[in-house]
Structure formats: structure tokens, C-alpha cells
Amino acid sequence: MSHPHPELTLPPALPDGGLRVVALGGLGEVGRNMAVLEYAGRLLVIDCGVLFPEDHQPGVDLILPDFDYIRDRLDDIEAIVLTHGHEDHIGAVPYLLRLRRDIPLVGSQLTLAFVEAKLKEHRIQPFTLAVREGQTETLGVFECEFVAVNHSIPDALAVAVRTGAGTVLHTGDFKMDQLPLDGRITDLRAFARLGEQGVDLFMVDSTNAEVPGFVAQERGIGPVLDSVFADSTKRIIVASFASHVHRVQQVLDAAVAHGRRVALVGRSMVRNMAIASELGYLTVPDGVLIDLKGVDSLPDDEVVLMCTGSQGEPMAALSRIANNDHKVSVGPGDTVILASSLIPGNENAVFRVINGLTRLGARVVHSGNAKVHVSGHASAGELLYCYNILKPRNVMPVHGEVRHLVANAALAVQTGVPADRVVLAEDGVVVDLVDGKASVVGAVPCGYVYVDGSSVGGITEAELKDRRILGDEGFISIFAVVSSADGKVLAGPQIHARGFAEQDEVFEDILPDLTRALEEAAAQGAVDTHQLQQVMRRVVGRWVSNRLRRRPMIIPVVVEA
Amino acid sequence: MSHPHPELTLPPALPDGGLRVVALGGLGEVGRNMAVLEYAGRLLVIDCGVLFPEDHQPGVDLILPDFDYIRDRLDDIEAIVLTHGHEDHIGAVPYLLRLRRDIPLVGSQLTLAFVEAKLKEHRIQPFTLAVREGQTETLGVFECEFVAVNHSIPDALAVAVRTGAGTVLHTGDFKMDQLPLDGRITDLRAFARLGEQGVDLFMVDSTNAEVPGFVAQERGIGPVLDSVFADSTKRIIVASFASHVHRVQQVLDAAVAHGRRVALVGRSMVRNMAIASELGYLTVPDGVLIDLKGVDSLPDDEVVLMCTGSQGEPMAALSRIANNDHKVSVGPGDTVILASSLIPGNENAVFRVINGLTRLGARVVHSGNAKVHVSGHASAGELLYCYNILKPRNVMPVHGEVRHLVANAALAVQTGVPADRVVLAEDGVVVDLVDGKASVVGAVPCGYVYVDGSSVGGITEAELKDRRILGDEGFISIFAVVSSADGKVLAGPQIHARGFAEQDEVFEDILPDLTRALEEAAAQGAVDTHQLQQVMRRVVGRWVSNRLRRRPMIIPVVVEA
After folding, report:
1. Contact in structure between B266 and B242 (CB atoms under 8 Å)
2. pTM, to two decimals
3. Model ipTM over 0.95
4. Residue B223 and which of A208, A366, B106, B159 are 20 to 30 A apart at CA?
């Protein structure tokens, strides 16, 4: 297995007849999935998603794939193929379409409906081509065959891309539930046929490659919900992902079975389920849905609230309910079900919600104490099936952190794929498929692109570092007006501090020293304001370090008058 | 079970002959454990630990129990009983001794050695009384019998406190490994005897009460280490907690078995293992330990590095090794073992370390893929044994978040403890044991006390909120000098911003508007600097919100000249 190395340089030109693959996101993180295929001078984009920030990226709203690699080649893009409707696969489409509005979007009916709803908020009306499993479409030089896959959202597709350089099979996100609710299984017969025909490069979801065995069935959650519902004598609140149509379906079915009615809570939940129901992916039994306003007029044991916030997002309904800060209230005897995974990094927030609900007297059922969630991604056991049925000539693990990619690569090798044909690439690494062999040939710059308020890409690591210092250490601004004639301090110095135990008062102590230091500096010929500012920074910095043991950001301003 | 309620008021006076228990930390969080027992006007403190901050507490070094409840009663304290040497049980002792230096510390030999090393750094020499299991000491009005318990640090003790009001048994932290490395099991014979004599209030560790079944044996980790060592042909790095003497023992033993030598890395690891070895808790085979400097002269397959940083702490050895920023380097073929739990909230940091090490080519073995860690806290199955052998008259779950306390309470009830004798209390809740019945009688204020640089308790929620705003949104300071005569702007306005995509430059756009707004305000009679500052804040705030979609902290300063 070839490890990506920091010493990788820009790649040579793609040889004639070769296929190039560059991921601009999703290889090294779980999110912002985006792969760019190039053949004969033309490009095909597969997915264009967002990544959600971690705590060391304060204030950041979203993280995008880095479009720089294709910024000058937008006109070469034949289409964006969207494998399914999750945010980490479609969320960055509006930002790419801002660069070129008429790139066609290709995907299944539900995927396109979700992305169109999102684009509407950005006031973009896209060009779309809806496809179904089994269908083949020629997108410029790329012949794309779409294959059904099973995932935690309906209507997900893998795509086989045929070019003169060979066939690439990209799974998107998938698992292999053999008895899914909608009967739409990952099409292993198509995988087998593609394998017979020859898959030259298999780009395969790595998210669960470290997890041994097989993902349990979605269908298994129904009986668990049923028994929790049967045990509940008061209100039931279920939280899950706003796009998890089948999970919501099972909640609706359980509600009907137990004579309860369901109110959907949360904008994205309401919007997505309206789409899913209109398109026939969600079957809403007659009369089961009620408006949130109608909840209070029903007895507690006839109510289910289906809401977002299962990851402890502070502004979502569930967190606010747990904080007793929402029109929906929870009390002793109520049951809350977190029918969702616990995404790493969200533990503290989720446990805060669980503790809050527990404190209010609710029973909290979650994946830690009941089988109310199954993953959407193939575990190691399922991946082994895929490798064996496909017998791909080359493998490129996608979608995951480095640990996931490496674990997936090891599985490929275990099934007999030669180690030198398993390509470990991170974002920006350039992989060429030439003469039937895939290899790393270089890398292009590929950074994190932060969306922050109205700024896209303006925030860099430097600003994030500033924010971390501001958040951890606070800041001090110092202001003085000095005479341009004799350097005497005419006004100030004034100190303003934030984030300190003792606010401005304690800093009074330093003012006489500061004035003295300024006037001494002026007396010694330091007349320009920049030098005087450095004097103020030094005096205050040293004092704060000694007295308060802190290293805040210090902004000194000297004005001459 | 009585849930704590926010409407609790200050408690009435403790009835004559009654016993009062107030936890000043540890009930509602995992950490800063501290309980205060009161009888006949005298106080006994059990444990005095720290809590480590979460991400929403930026810049905070440590969180202490709230000593306010006992601040005016320091002279009533007979002693501080320390159940074991973990930071969350001893870490706040220096801060309590700062208030009264001569409070006696009572604990086992190893516990006292660890706390004395810590106090030495604070330049405090304590009064101590070393005790052993089986021993009974009269501490003023409290007769204390010490009972051996098994935990993830040697020499841990439970304490039975006898008073005229009845007997309290406090477990400290414990589990019930039946074949511990040192043969020192949790003394269920003593528990049985105490039960026969009558335990009126059982204060019991709740940390793992949600976890079904039993904790696996520490001894089971040896064979796993052995097989990982056998598979390793290059360097081995093991990371664990710096106080986990038995884990380190097993690493030393595995090293000897495989012809390797061990360098301890990290100040606390070196210090604690020196203490443990000197006191006979750690058996160091001859010649197995080497200095870190000696590592480079040994072949890779003769080296083990035993270090801290298993929680992804950014400054610890392991994180720096993973970042390629440490004198110890890791490369292809090396093995890293994280022999530790993953404490909730640390996932992102730990996974960053695992990804970094994986990227460097190392094989990373951790509790997610091998049995290299067992917990130190009794699971539900073990707790049931305790309840059944003790048959306590009243139960008060301690040490845990609300969800843990509630789960532990449910176990007590399942074994037949009447629900009205299971007391659910959080920090500050006052529990009185009167006439053999424990009940909640009120609550005293009990906040989080933040250590931040040199400040203890100065930082409040208000400053933390400021810091979160600073970290998420950045700040803008605005300065202007105006004429006291006619309100004309003499110098400035100047804007300085940090944490923004566009730093100061973009703010140039607003300066003309700002000057105009100031002079208009002055013309309309707003002459005091406070009013002018509000004008600046409003103009800049509105502009930043509209143009940048941000809500930073804004500090306007107007000086008259």
C-alpha cells in the first residue's frame, strides 16, 4: 500500500488515454466528499458535500471541499453526479454552482429533490437529470451506469463510470442490509456483472472499515421501538437525523400501532419528510401526523414528537427541551428516544442533553442502552463480500479518516488485491489509472475552505488560531493619545479587557507604569506610534503574564495629537 | 426516588443526633469529588478532587469543588479522608489547604505519597495520617474504619464512618476484579460484616452504573499485550494514565518477556512510577528501565516507550509524536498501544492522534480494536452484588453525571431498597440522616469554581460566555478622540479586529460613516463619551451583521481631548 507523503509534488500531465482521480474532500475526514475524475480533458464530479467543524475550528459554520484544483476548468465539467441526499454529499453544491450555474446535476429522484430544496434557499435553479438504478447515461466522455445501493437514506446510488481508460466503480455511501424496509438492496448482481466485465478502479466507502462484522438490520429497530412505546404511559419524544426517512417511517408505524399521533418538530425534519412523502418514499398513515400546535390538546399517551437534535446541537429542539427552554416540555414519566448514532466529538453535548432530560424526570433510551440505531455504512464483513464479488483490479478507499482508509485498504489486501494496487490517497492526492494500473503520481494543494458568516474561504488557520487564543486567553486593548510635540501622554492610557476574572479594574494597577514607560520611551527618542505601541504591548504583556499567568491577545493603539 | 429540584431552599438546622451529608462536587459530573459529613457540629471531608474542563469552558485549567459551604467552618473539619490517589479525588487538596494548612490528611500510603508530591509543587507540607485496610481511627466524633477496595490505582480504600446517627459506608471509586494483579480485592467480607452490623447510608460509586454486566479483569490485558509485543518487529509505544501502576507493571513484564527495555516518558509518569516503585507497589525487573536518552542507541526491536497522552492532550508526548514534533519519532512498522479508555469529550483529540500515527505508518492498537483497557469502576452487575451483600438502609449514589446517579439508584431499588430510601442528590443538595432515614432537606449554593492562571474562582459564567463569543465571533475595538469643545473627531476613528476573514482592511469602508455618525450625534447634543461609544457600537455592529453576518464583541472607546 502506498502511503501519501507530504513530499508529493505537482503531478505530471495525464498521459493520453489515462484517467485521473483527485478527491477534493472526504479522504482524511468524514465529510465534504468530492471526487473529480478526468478523462480526455473532461471532468466528472462525484458528490460535493460539506464537513461540520470541530471544536478547534471555532465560529466556523461549514467546511467545503477545496475547489481551487478545478477553478480554472469549470467549463470542462460534464456533470456533478450525486450519489445520495446527505449533507456531506450535497451540501457544497450551492457553492460550486455559484462558480458556474449550469453544471448539470445527476442523481436519483429523492437526491435531486433534497438538493433542489437546498438550492432554492440559495436562490439557484439547477439543471438536473434524474436517473434510476439500472440506467446508463452518457455524460460527455463518461458513460455512467447507476447501481442501487442501500444506505441510511432512500434512493442512494453507486455509479460505474466507463471511459477508454477503464471502468471506475464508486460506491457512494452504502451498506448491505439484506432486508431493508423498502426492499431496495445493494445490487450485488450488478456488482457481480461489473466484476465479470472488469472493474479497473473500485472507490469504496471506508467509514465503518474498522468495525468488524456486519451492520444490524434497520428492520430490527421496529420491535425495539414497539417495546419502548408499549412501556410508555406518557409523552414520547424521538430524535433522529432529519433525512432518515426509514427511521421516521418506523416511528410513524409504531405510533399508529400504539394509538399515538406524531408531530414533526424542526424545520429540516418538516421539509424533508414533506418531500419524502410527496415522492412516495415515506408512507404516512392517514391522520397520524398532527401539527405541533395540536399536541397540547391531546392526552400525553397519544403523543409522539419526532424531532431533530440527536447530536446535541444547542439550538435544536431537543437541547432546548432538555434545558426547559422550549414550548414542548418534558417531565417525569415521559420517554425520550435518541434513535441515532453518537457522532464522535458530540459526546459532551449529547450527554448534556441526556442528563438534562434525566434531571427533568424523563426516561432516556439511546443507542448506549437499547438497539435504537444501526449505522448506514458497510462494516468490514460487508466490505469483504464486495471485494470478493467484484475482484477489482485496483482499489482506492474513500470516505473516512486516515484510520478508516488504512483499515479498508487492509481488507482489500486480505481478499487478494495486490498491495501495490491498493492506493491510499488523501485529499488532493492525484491518482492516475494508466494501462490498467492505478498509482499516486503527485498531489495538488487542497486545504480546508471555511464558510463563516458571509465569508467563504476567507478564514485561514491564522484566524482560527487568533480565535482560539481569544477564546482561551481573552484580549486586552490599550489606548493612549500622545503629544506629537513632546511625547507627553495627553489622554489615556486606557485598558479594556475581556475574558478575565477581574475585568478592567485590576488593570488600573498597571496604568502608572504604562504612562511612565511611554514617556521614558518618548524621552529616549521613540517617537513613532509603532514603537510606542510595542512599549505598551511589552509592559502589559509582562505584567499579565506575571500577575495573572495568562497570555491574552494584546492590541495596543497609540494616536498622536 | 427523590429527584433534586431547583426549588430547593436552604436547609433547616441539623436536628440533634442527626448526620448531614453535602457533596460539594462529583454529583452531576465525573470529577471534583468531595463530600462533607457533619455530626455534632464537626465536619469530615471525604476526597477533594478536580474536574477537567470541557470545550464550552475555554481557557479554564481546572474546576474545583465549591468550598463556600465550609469556608466559615474550616476549624470544624476533623480531617480529609482521601480514598485513593487519582486527580479527581486529591487534585483540589492544595486549594483547600491554602484555606487552612493544618487539616489532617488521612489515606493509604500510596495515596498520601501522591498527594504529598502534588503539595510539594504548591510548597505545602501537610499533616498526614497513613492508614491501612482493616484499621479503625477515631477522627474527632467520627470513627472511621478503612476497607480495601480494588480500583485502577493501588491502595484504594472505602471508608465506613460511624457516628451516633448511624454508619455511613462510602466506597470511593471501586470495582470488584476477583483476581487483581496485587491480590488485593474489594473486601466483601468486610462489606458483609458491616451489613450485618447495619449500614445506614451507603454512598456508592455510580460511574459505570449504566454499563450492564461486569468489568473484565486487569489480568486479561497481559496476554493481549503479549501478543501485540510478539507481533511487533520495531518500536513499541504504550500510552496510558500516569497513575495506572498495574498497567505499567504489565507493560514492564511484557517488555522483559520480549527482550525489550522501557523508557518512561512524561513528567507525571516518571514521578508516579518512582513513588510506586519505591513504596513497593511497582516491581521493576532489574535493568528493564532505561533513560529516554538511551533509546536511540538500542535497536528498534528492543525498545518500549511508556508515555502519557492517551487522551490526546495536545502537549503530551503522544500527540507531539503523532505530529512529528517530538524527539521520539514513529515510522512504518512501529506499534502504538493506547492502553486506556476514551474519556467522553476527548474523541476528536484521540482520533487526531490515531490518524497522525497511522499516517506516519504506525500500527495503532486501542480499546476500539483490542482488549487493551478495562475500566476501574464497578459495572451494574458488580453493584448488584454490593447492594445484596450490604442490604443498606439508605442509598445515596455518588460520583457521576445525573444519568449515572439515576441508573445506580434504579439498581438499588431493584435489589429491594425502598425507593423512598434512595436519595438522588446533586452537588450542594443537603441530605440528613435522622432516625435512620436519609432525606433531602434543602440545598446550599454550589457552583463551579474555575482555576484559570493565577485566578481561583474569579472566572464566572459571564466571562466564559465572553470567551465563547470572542472565540466564535472575534472582536472589534474602535477608538476615536473627539474634541470636548465641539464634538469634532480629532483622531481616528480607528478599527482593530481579530478573528475575521478580512482583518483591518475591510473595516476601512465603515470609517467615513462612523465619523459622520459621531459628528451628527455630537451636533444633536450627545456630548458624553458613553453616548458616543454607543453610537460607534451601533454603527459598527449593524454593518458587521449585514456585511459579514457576524456578531463579534465590540469595544468602543471615545476619548475627549
Report:
1. yes
2. 0.89
3. no
4. A208
